[in-house]
Amino acid sequence: MSRIIVTGGRLSYPKLREMDEMSGKYQTSYIFDPQTQGELGRAIDEAIDAKWGADRPANLRLPVKNGNEKIDSRTGEVNPAYEGKYYFTAGTKFDAPGVIKTDGTNASDEDIYGGQNASLSVSVRAWEHPSGGKGVSIDLWNVRIDGGGEKFGSSDGSANADFGVTAASDF
Question: At 155, phi and psi to the nearest 5?
Answer without folding.
Answer: -65, 145
